[in-house]
Amino acid sequence: MSVSEAAYPVNQHKKYDALIALAAQTPNPVTVVVHPCDETSLRGAVEAAEADLIVPVLVGPAQRIKAVADAHGLDIARYELIDVSHSEAAATKAVELIREAKGEMLMKGSLHTDELMRAVTSSTMGLRTGRRISHVFVMDVPTYSEPLFITDAAINIAPDLDVKRDIVQNAIDLFTQIGLGKPRVAILSAVETVTSKIPSTIDAAALCKMADRGQITGAILEGPLAFDNAIDPEAAKIKGIDSPVAGRAQILVVPNLEAGNMLAKNLSFLARADAAGIVLGAKVPIVLTSRADSVRTRLASSAIAVLLVDARRRAAAPKMA
């Protein structure tokens, strides 16, 4: 057993449990599973269905999907299976089903993320909204007291200020809509002071002012903050940062994809964190799972999307007089 495994046993991770239990109490959304042609992606869909989270519709080469199911003892007989010839066709068909209101969520299978996102972001037949599409990791870090949101570590490579505004608002909306309250948002950089030599500090200051002026809503923002004084109260105290966010951040907004990706993977591999993932800003939430995800992480990704779907359903429902 490694030092990290001894210090942070996987079975100590409990933060996802409440989300999964709450999602299981909501009506199961029809979830279009795109090209589930390997064990991990097909098992993730089946396990989410068996956990009473989703109703999967499997889209991809039918014979390949059936062969994977047979090889790994997965019962898919009860689920709708739509036969298409290859992964690109599966992505196109999945988006078509969503546009026809035949599904409320997308779940990535064994195709490349870029392939799925090309269909989602198509200017003519995609699922774009007025909001920039972005990704959020919802991380269960054993050494942190609550779930930690990290954005964007998977979609937007080098976002400018306008894109960062949408990235921040997407994460805030997710946090609030799945029932976690009003979040504390840290805009990260290498330092906690504004300097023209580090452009991300200027973006951080601008985002905080945008929140002051109502251009970003629903959260308390602080930035720039370095990672240590964003998540550690003692580090914030030493630097003299007096803020409701410093040392207690719930959402971490990174300067760019590289920083976010490295941060999330460092937490996963050095602190034994789990990393559920969801794509926001499209017409429906998109569940992104990894071959390295544990069963519980895959369920958590599904649960987060299910709770978001349910919140949108309730918001759209006619209000009683």
Largest sheet: 11 strands, mixed
Give the tally of structural domains.
Answer: 2
CATH architecture of the largest domain: 3-Layer(aba) Sandwich
How far apart, in Å, are the first and last alpha carbons?
61 Å
Number of strands: 11
Structural class: alpha/beta
How helix-rich are the residues, as a percent range? 40-55%
In round numbers, the mean pLDDT is 93
CATH topology of the largest domain: Rossmann fold
Q: What proportion strand? A: 15-25%
Biggest sheet, strands in spatial order? Answer: 3-2-1-4-11-10-5-6-9-7-8
Radius of gyration: 20 Å
Could you explain the architecture of this structure?
The protein has 321 residues and is an alpha/beta fold. The chain folds into 2 domains: 159 residues, Rossmann fold (3-Layer(aba) Sandwich); 153 residues, Isopropylmalate Dehydrogenase, CATH 3.40.718. It contains 12 helices and 11 strands. An 11-stranded mixed β-sheet has the order 3-2-1-4-11-10-5-6-9-7-8, sandwiched between helices. Helix 2 packs across helix 12 and helix 5 packs parallel to helix 6. It is globular. 49% of the residues are buried. The N terminus is likely disordered.
